[in-house]
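Notebook, p. 212. Picked up where the previous page left off. The plan for this session was modest: take the two constructs that came back from the sequencing core last week, fold each one, and keep the raw output in the notebook itself so nobody has to go hunting through shared drives later. Recording the first one now, exactly as returned: residue sequence, then the structure token string.
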Amino acid sequence: MKAQLAYRPATVAPGRAAVLRHEIEAFHADYCAALDANDVERWPDFFSEDARYRITSRENALLDMPVGLVYCEGRDMIRDRALAVAHSQMFAPRHMLHMLGVTRVIEESGAGIVSQTPFILLQTLIEGPSTVHLAGTYFDRFIRSGEQLLLADRQVVHDTEVLATALAYPV
């Protein structure tokens, strides 16, 4: 993971990168719209069957530590997490809003499309102000299923070591 955090020059030609960026941004628009609408049960549909999803701190990533706040292997584990979040009310009601930066397309190969996208996740408690809940970068590898992009690997690396609240909701 440490190598992923370092700057990597893109190996995709600019024209091809623009096409892929457009596809990834359309994917992100749907992904974030589902989560922002609190449709957590739809979240696993954005992942491949054998996908990996992890949320970890920048410090852990720099130290190549596999430790993460959340770690899921396979769509079934991701679905279990989604159902647990959707059907338990262990946290105060809130609205989430994902804001994404410009996606960098790093590589395209037989193994998929590798990209990085910075994000900010805003949280608004029903009876409180909006706050930055999390900021960081998505380190993704996408694969194709027909014409559809799916996440084969999403490493969510957050920049802070101190989280304001428990991180139960998908990022």
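Okay, moving on. Second construct, recorded in the same format:
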Amino acid sequence: MLSEAIKKISKMRRKILTELLLTVRFGLVGILTTAIHITVLWMLLSKSLLPIFIANIVAFSFAFGPSFIGHYFWTFRASGFVRRAMLRFLTISMFAFLLNNIFLSYLLNLAWFSPITTAIASSIVIPIVTFFAIRLWAFDHISTTLPASKRNYLSTKFQAMRLKHLKSKDT
């Protein structure tokens, strides 16, 4: 009985540490891609006559690729179905971008806080929502909860099935 309790506690600790590591990776990729977004935005606004909204969309586009690659291959260590994951990630990212702008505009119109405080609040809330959407939908929980050996097996099986399908289309 005691050994079962110890095993459950050990399993729970491993799960908590895994989720904590996942959250830290998500944050690091987010910080890097936010830095890319802000740098591109700053360069566009200081060196061109683009309106801020258009410059922000361009900066978002520059940050999307590194964000997807970082989260897909490092944060969530997903495998297989890259196209589906990218489309889902793009959907979530665009929704988060839109939600961030709406939330930011709303808070700015309320004028309860300074613009910088409002931007910080928006920068904290939106990534939390995004994390759960990506975790639960974009990269499917199955690809992140399976051990690496099983993920590699599934990825290999998927690639073999895809190759077989492509060969059958050629004939």
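Notes on construct two before I forget. The longest helix spans residues 2-47.
Flagging for discussion at group meeting.
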